[in-house]
């Protein structure tokens, strides 16, 4: 068991997504099956049975579908560029670095220092794996990352919490730091970001700020980036094993404004 964990604000959200992945795995793991998440909710000293955790666990399949698609993009990229560096921003307690077949390059997981301290306690050390405890918007951590060569930048459940200027600065920096690469992330629509700002504590007030309506706007800010793929997170909702969820997701998917609430994007440069 770790010491007591008391993350607040945006840091708390990584316990929510961890709990969702653990629950999906306990229910059979038909979509993602994140066994490490199950193990972590037993190891981390936090009340994962609390009301606020139970209230937020409903959308576990959305989180599992998002993680699975990003895993697929990561595995595909590392299959093509095994020596690539991987930068996973806002990693939280996510087990991707242990879940997908790793390449030969170094994998950097970046999050706030206290989040990274907790990761050090619960994850084993690995070769070619580095943790960076820093805000992603503080440019100095880039000095630890070797320049040149191919890179894969992964940001899952992160960019919506940043200001547009910060997202733009990170993407610009990535395309300047490396010769070639891909960037994969999820983005929320404007109405979803607005609604999140109205929600009461502890569900609101994470400072959600950035919404992406059309992935092409990112190409306009960072001309080296080319949108290769974009899909709604619920694209593969038929894989969800519970009928009631499937029905709800099918309805949701049939209304474009709802279907596009959360989309996944893949860019190349
Ligand atoms: C919704 S969680 C997602 C965590 C993980 N990617 C996952 O899918 O489980 C958002 C994460 O982004 C991190 N985060 C938010 N703003 C950040 C910033 N400015 N710098 C570093 N990490 C940040 C939070 O600490 C949290 O771990």
UniProtKB/TrEMBL annotation:
Keywords: Methyltransferase, Transferase
GO MF term list: methyltransferase activity
GO biological process, one term: methylation
Gene3D superfamilies (UniProt xref): Vaccinia Virus protein VP39
Matches recorded under InterPro entries: Ppm1/Ppm2/Tcmp (IPR007213), SAM-dependent_MTases_sf (IPR029063), TcmP-like (IPR016874)
One Pfam family per UniProt: LCM
Superkingdom per UniProt: Bacteria
Protein name: Methyltransferase
Species annotation: Actinokineospora bangkokensis
